[in-house]
Amino acid sequence: GHGRRPVGGVRRERTGHDATGHFRGQVREQLGGFRWDPVGGGLNFRPLANGREPDIAVSGDQAWAVWYEEGGGLPHKFIFVARQVGNTWEIVGGCTGDGRNCALNRSNVNDARDPRIAIGPIPGTNELVPWIVFVESDISKGHDNIYVSRYDPSSNRFIPVGGSLNLQPSFDDASDPDIAFAGSVPFVTFSEEFGGNKRVYVRHLADVRTGRERWDLDTRDNGINLLGFEDAVTPSIATNGLAPFVAWSEGGILSLETLGIEKHMEPSGGTWGSNYPPYIRIISPSDRLGVAFLSRDSAGAPAIARDNAVHTPESVRLPAISSRLAEISGPAVITTTCDNIAGWSNITEVWFKITRPYVRNEPPSVETPFLGLYTTADKKVYLVDPQDPNNRGTGSTIGVGSDLQNATVILHVSQMSEQSLGPDSPAFDLKWVISPKLGGARGLYQQQLRLVSKDGDTDFFDVGEFLVGGELNLPLLIR
Fold first, then answer.
1. Angle CA(244)–CA(249)–CA(251) in degrees, nearest 5?
2. Pairing mode, strands 50-59 and 396-397
């Protein structure tokens, strides 16, 4: 099921006043295409409380409804879930007292609101259960955070799936979550304030292991906004089984994007990936000294001429979150996360390219100081000739093999590793360790990936930036 659309012949009604004047949730079932009959009575846990923001999904012949309540003796805004049992509704979790023992809130001293529901499998099984995303005003963090919980049949309760999905849980407010499944993989979209505007983000569950859940970001730090100066709000997400589609309102205009259209993640046959960190600056000690002794103008600002012909990197347009930016003088450690809807074992080859599609004051070029290939079958890595990709050489086994190098980089094969995120997860991580030779590879480059699976080939797509040398740090000093 999907959180914002009628599902399986059942629709949701927003709210309706009962005889006491309080809001009561009502669910009606469509019969014969022309009549709506009540399915049970009001859903509220506390009849005198106000029920808000209901959502509904259907699994087989059973409907599940979620909403939040406030007032009527409740100490906070609590989220409740009920399932259809015949012509009645049963609130999940064995509620007693004021309901705090069965509410979905992560803490019963926090307000929670705006729940959305979708039906998806329990990881590693084919059993379909409801998953719910919601907003909670986290007192400990001081901001509104996005959380996900799923139903656990063994305990008849909803259990947390990882922590906060916010980019910056302790600094920014998030809102308007929605959830949908592509295959067995849940995707969540939401809006979060960042860089002075509300931006739309997407995450998916990459590690499904209990207690190790990891929600990977499927956008850059500035989200999937089309404009950088308008608020993007109320995103809604749906999938075609292989890739998510997201619609939202931005500056009063509705927009629609799909994962892979002019974005840095491009699925093919349900395969996609990302690099972490996406922003890397490699600077030698002499470069740092040059930055420190820049001349300044009369106002005290760095005296640097602007060159409109120079590509402005993403990290200049919008400062990257510190945890996603690596500024180093030694080897670059980059983790490639490889995802497939049907499971990570479907991926056969991982290609990683560092390339420069633009050069200062010159026509676009295809200078590529590094092209690496990892084959999952034999766990070998190859330093490929960019001019002749079929020339792979003999390769070297990660973790134990000899290092590889060319005129511009050293690939530290002995320090590389592959990490599974569990047999039921869609992803695995591959750690690359690369040292550019500063004399031969200076400039602004793009990080690009290409993933080959049993189902298809993504071709190369952008996943970040790679800055080598101090001259590229200078624009970062001016705004």
1. 140
2. unpaired
pLDDT in tens, 414-435: 999 999 999 999 999 999 999 9
Eight-class DSSP state of 314: H
- Binning the chain into helix, strand and coil, the percentages to the nearest 5 are 5, 50, 45
Closest Cα partner for 244 from 179, 289, 152?
179
Cα separation, 402 vs 411, whole angstroms: 9
Give me 468's structure tokens: 């080598």
Distance in angstroms (rounded) separating the CA atoms of residues 61 and 427 = 32
Contact status, residue 64 vs residue 117, Cβ threshold 8 Å: yes
Furthest C-alpha separation in the chain? 80
Dist CA 305 CA 246 (whole Å) = 40
Q: Which helix (H) or strand (E) holds 246?
A: strand 244-250
Distance of alpha carbon 475 from the chain centroid = 29
Q: How far is CA 383 from CA 41, 269, 386, 397, 445, in A?
A: 66, 26, 9, 12, 18
Decide the pairing of beta strands 78-85 and 396-397. unpaired
pLDDT digits 0-9 by tens, 112-163: 999 999 999 999 999 999 999 999 998 777 899 999 999 999 999 999 999 9
Give the integer Cα–Cα distance in Å for 370 and 347: 22
Q: SS3 for 464?
A: strand
Beta strands in 39-172 (DSSP E): 50-59, 62-70, 78-85, 88-91, 111-121, 128-138, 143-152, 157-160
Q: Considering the entire predicted model, what is its pTM?
A: 0.82
CB proximity list for 223: less than 8 A, separation 6 or greater: 192, 194, 199, 200, 201, 232
Instruction: Please give the backbone phi and psi of residue 55, each rounded to the nearest 5 degrees, phi first.
Output: -145, 160
